[in-house]
Amino acid sequence: MIENAFQFLQAQPLLLALVKILMVFAVLGGLVAYLVYMERKVLAFMQARLGPMRVGPWGLLQPIADGIKLLLKEDIIPQGADRTIFLLAPAISVMAAFTVFAVIPFAGNFFISDINIALLFILGVSSLGIYGIILGGWSSNSHYPLLGALRSSAQLVSYEVAAGMALVGVLLISNSLSMVEIVQRQQSMGVWNVFLQPVAFVIYVIAAVAETNRNPFDLPEAESELTAGFHTEYSGFRFALYFMAEYTNMIVVSCIAVTLFLGGWLRPFTSVKFLDFLNYVPPLALVGAAAFIFWLGRQSRVALERTILVGLSVLLVLVAGLVAIPPVLAAIQGIFWFTAKVLAFLYAFIWYRATFPRYRYDQLMNVGWRVMIPVAMANLVVTAVLRYFLSGHAVAAPAALLIGN
Amino acid sequence: MPEATYLDASELVINMGPQHPATHGVLRVKLKLDGEKVLGSDCVIGYLHRGVEKIAENRTYTQFAPYTDRMDYVAAVTNGMGYVEAVEKLLGVELPPRAQYTRMILAELQRIASHLLWLGTHALDIGAMTPVFYTFREREEILKIFENYCGARLTTHAFRIGGLQYDLYDGFEREVTKFCDYFLPKVAEYETLLTTNRIWLKRTKNVGVISAADAIAMGVTGPVLRGSGVKWDIRKAQPYEAYDKVEFDVPIGQNCDTYDRYLVRMEEMRQSVRIIRQSVDRIAPGPIMGKVGKVIKPPVGEVYHSIEAPKGELGYFVVSDGSTYPYRVRVRPPSFINLQALDIMIRGHLIADVVAVIGTLDIVLGEVDR
Question: Which residues of chain A lie closer than 8 angstroms to B203, CB-CB?
Fold first, then answer.
């Protein structure tokens, strides 16, 4: 038994995976918290206001304060609720959201695992997340959550069909279900999938917005019509779990879109020699951030804040210097570009929210079933036919597998 | 509301409000639903009833004027204007032109402010959260002008019976013109966000349709009536102040739906700017009060006077028994009467449309309940 445990620990790949999992968890936890902050700030700037400003310089500590508040709040369980399921449901949502990161390659050499059915795994696990919503709404034993849960599960299921079909298009041209191979394929072809599958990309983006319950498809949480939807009865940290699941899902769909359509960790224009100076964007971005923080620090009227911010900017400049060293630079390229693309995608999510009104429920279903799914099907057929005639051999087996699903 | 049969299990009666983010105050709507489809509705009002009309009987004419501001509290200037004009009609007072044009400028600014509040909340109800912040930014500029003029931003009590309480402050004309120049591009900005937005069109076109005949039968007035294609604007039909001396158009809609009412109100804001510009040009130095005594004591008689408030026809029926107290003041508030049309506008639509229709009626519960 002890020997077994020893051997287990010694098994290098597993240990490495464990470390990676911890890293991903730590980074994601922070990222989710600061995604909320980013959303509030970006929305605020688009709406001619300031957003959080009170907790820390420029409200930077707001997510931490929110987290602590939610942790310390009372966890209310309604009297008629099905206790076990009520307690379990948010955990299902969060787990499903986090599990997907197991197969997402953050860089060419940084991923938790590279399995050959990664795409299927993602579709399967993210569908499981719906159980969290249905069970949560049902076990609350209350009208609004039940209606919200039904609405959102109907919405998620129907848009998942369109999203799945859009992904099959990518599958056909990259000949693999492995996320790493899909990116490598884009590298070897010298063109991102978005240029080969623009229709699929657009469909996937729309479906992704719908799947994450974001505006203009945020009907389950339409506060001007219903109350908070499926999580009406949740409070305290269980509510925070749902909240986390939603924002993690935003990151998940962004990561998938970036990996499948936007070249994953690849730098833009890797095949164009004279654009190689783009390799130096990461340290320059750090220097830019340092300059911004320095400027913030100079503006601050609180001595402590000033010291911290100026110190932080100096630290960032040092890190930028470190990053500029060629081997380090090569090592972080992938991570940097991946993060940058995902952030751009998330920014777009927030942008939609500031711009669009909300669809009505019947219109939402119409768009899903009458527009998105037929277009996705047409795209799939056209891709398959072209693929067959252009490359001379039959459609890859995995595609058949996925369609059959 | 059709009688409940209690046999059909798919019928569901739900309660919307009085605490609901989309009912613009304390309106309670009982909805009878088949799934999400609305079969009928009942409005329950009175949660904000303050007995304003009864209060009037125990106040002098002058004392009652501030109470009128508190009915439609997002358009206090026009509310006060309706009342003082009704009493002036009873007294037979002629206003000096400076007072008339000042009243018109402030009333049109108030119309813009009221429409801005409507636009922001209406869009917010339909899910577009950004316009409300833009419209409040512009509304703020108008409130600043009010504040500079009379010291109050919301419940202004801007006018006196017989004229104005204050003369214009230095730089008033300049500030108002500056606002007009600043404001017109902003209307275009709101339109870029909404007017051709696919989702906005889907949510507002053919929603809350009320035919011209129905609208007239229901007594609906203001932009809601004009959205149904009836060219009825009291500023044109029965001009008061100096509205017959300025040029402006009365926009009307054709399709009788929420979208047309939206377009009508957007155009009305532009027309208000036109009126303000002309009034600023014509305003000349002179007296600001007509000939009224220190004690307001109208002769025995009664008078009905109505004006075009931002939300529709606002009428005051004032009865005098010759004393310093009005014998009776009856208010015809546009919101109250427009709200009648809610039921026929939402029948057959979905719950989400109820919110849109309440928004497009532009009601203020302070005025509905009085």
Answer: 357-360, 363
For residues B313-346, one letter each, b for 16 or more C-beta atoms within 10 angstroms of the residue's C-beta and e for the rest, the string is: bbbbbbbbeeeebbeebebbbbbbbbbebbbbbb
Number of domains into which chain B is organized? 1
Give B140-143's long-range contacts (Cβ < 8 A, gap of 24+): B141/B179, B141/B182, B141/B183, B142/B109, B142/B110, B142/B112, B142/B113, B142/B116, B142/B179, B143/B113
Locate A150 and state its tokens: 């039904």
Give the up-direction half-sphere exposure of residue B103: CA atoms within 13 A in the CB hemisphere. Answer: 30
Chain A environment of B182 (Cβ under 8 Å): none
- The number of angstroms, rounded, from the C-alpha of A95 to the middle of its chain's C-alpha atoms is 14
The Cα B63–Cα B85 span in angstroms is 15
Residue A337 has pLDDT above 60, yes or no: yes
The pLDDT of B1-16, averaged and rounded, is: 62
Within a domain: B33: no
pLDDT in tens, B189-214: 888 888 888 888 888 888 888 888 88
Most B CBs within 10 A among A213, A225, A355, A359, hence the mutation to make, goes to: A225
- A140-179 residue pLDDT tens: 877 777 777 777 778 887 888 888 888 888 888 887 888 8
Query: Is the separation of the CB atoms in B296 and B59 below 8 Å?
Result: no
Residue B272 host element (H or E)? helix B258-282
Contacts of B353 in chain A (CB under 8 A): 360
Helices (H), strands (E): how many in chain A? 16, 0
What is the C-alpha to C-alpha distance for residues A98 and A177, in angstroms, rounded to an integer? 20
Domain range summary for chain A, segments of one domain joined by +: 73-266+364-404, 276-324
Domain annotation covers residue B7: no
**Residues of chain B positioned with their CB less than 8 A from the CB of A355:** 128, 130, 193
Tell whether B30 is covered by a domain.
no
Give yes or no for residue A122 having a pLDDT over 80.
Answer: yes
CATH number at residue B256: 1.10.645.10
Give CA–CA dist B341/B257, Å, rounded: 13
B336: containing domain = 51-369
Interface check B123 vs A, CB under 8 A: yes
Q: Which residues of B123-156 are buried (b: 16+ CB within 10 A; e: fewer)?
A: bbbbbbbbbbbbbbebbebbbebbeebbeebebb
Is B331 in a helix, a strand, or coil? strand
Question: B292-330: per-residue pLDDT in tens?
Answer: 878 888 888 889 999 988 988 999 999 988 888 899 899
Q: Contact, B311 vs B234, CB < 8 A?
A: no
How far apart CA A347 and CA A352 sit, in angstroms, is 9
Q: Tell me, yes or no, whether B2 lies in a domain.
A: no
DSSP secondary structure code for residue B314 in this structure: E
Report, as an integer, the average pLDDT of B27-52.
83
Ramachandran assignment for B222, one of left (phi > 0), alpha (psi -120 to 50 degrees), beta (any other): left
Q: Do A361 and B127 touch (CB under 8 A)?
A: no
**What's the CA gap between B279 and B149, in Å, rounded?**
16
State how far the Cα of B317 lies from the Cα of B304, in Å rounded to an integer. Answer: 4
Question: Contact B168/B103 with Cβ under 8 angstroms?
Answer: no
**Minimum Cα–Cα distance from A42: chain B residue:** B130
Chain A: give the shortest CA distance to residue B203, in Å.
7
What would the DSSP string read from start to end of B138-191? HHHHHHHHHHHHHS-SSS---EETTEESSPPPTTHHHHHHHHHHHHHHHHHHHH
Q: Please tell me what DSSP assigns to residue A226.
A: S
Q: If interface means Cβ-Cβ distance under 8 Å, which residues of chain A face chain B?
A: 43, 46-49, 215-216, 218, 222-225, 353-363
Kindly tell me the number of DSSP H helices and DSSP E strands found in chain B: 15, 8
Surface of B (90-119) touching A: CB under 8 A: none
